[in-house]
Amino acid sequence: MSKNYYIIPIFVPHEGCPHNCVFCNQDRITGVDDEEVTASSVITTINDYLETIKNKNATIEISFFGGTFTGIREEKQRELLKVAKEFKEKGLIDKIRLSTRPDYINDHILTYLKEYGVDIIELGVQSLNEEVLKKAGRGHSVHDVIDASKLIKEYKFILGHQIMPGLPGDTFERDIETTKESIKMNPDICRIYPSLVIKDTPMERMYINNEYIPYSLEEAVNVSKVMYDMYKKHNINVIRIGLQPTESINEGKDIVAGPFHPSFRELVEGSLLSDIILENMAEEKKGVLYINSRDLSKLYANKKTYFSKLKDNGKVIDVKQDDNIERGHIKLCLENRKLDIAY
After folding, report:
1. Number of domains in the chain
2. Which residue of 27, 154, 284, 315 has the fewest CB atoms within a 10 Å radius of its CB?
3. Which residues, listed in sequence order, are joined to residue 240 by a DSSP beta bridge?
4. Which domain holds residue 291?
5. Do 81 and 211 have their domain in common?
6. Is the pLDDT of residue 251 over 60?
7. How many helices (H) and strands (E) does the chain have?
8. CA angle 110-111-115, nearest 5°?
9. Does the pLDDT value for residue 225 go beyond 70?
């Protein structure tokens, strides 16, 4: 996220969601309690955040996360959205975002969300495989996702998809198929959250009973980098890869098992970058690689594991820092050609 872009998170934890998905414990994931969110508390939260933002040119967004926003009472939705809209109309914030389930979207809901100035709607898609959705206890179908995505686009909202590779019943192939089907719906943005086993969830019991094995870190990186690359090639902005650390998660209190890493996105981008360099070098053995200094951590991610793969494949790379290179790009100079590559 740009230093000129600020998100004010408003957590509406688990309120409105009648389902108990196997992976879900919103209290632990969000790091907040099930305390009711009111207009007054939202105003306080927004004002507290605004006081910390000194950049006059910043883009500021209010985001309603944690739970199923359009599943809570319509009266409560309107109460909270009214606050956000008032801040937007005063020019104090620029965008309003919310997340919800695919089966809690219809014409009536989208009409009033538009009235309150909502800009971005993220759907908890998780998977586009019917068997996986059933095992995850989602309570909705693939067609619900297709219908909701189509409606959201028709109403001119920004559409987001949240995908969870590695759920019970998932395979690498199923995760890639989910990505293909998601791309067909043309979301504007996407989040990739490899499945983690959180304490006090049905999935924890499945894990303890040997009914579920989460992806290893390497497996999660491998599937996530393919998904990320697919979305990127279709100009879909992947805004997050991996669950955002909270204080409790950082301390290891709530993750029972699974591919958690505080810099998971960096691992994904580093592994993908290594693959791209290998592919472009083909039979050539030596090259000079120019990279922005702020992207060096990606090249050397995971204790240089991915960079070492280049050496293991007989490649000799002379790395040079050049801050004129756009971030997310490299310049690869080989014996008879120079390549500008985005990754």
Report:
1. 2
2. 154
3. 191
4. 269-342
5. yes
6. no
7. 13, 13
8. 110
9. yes
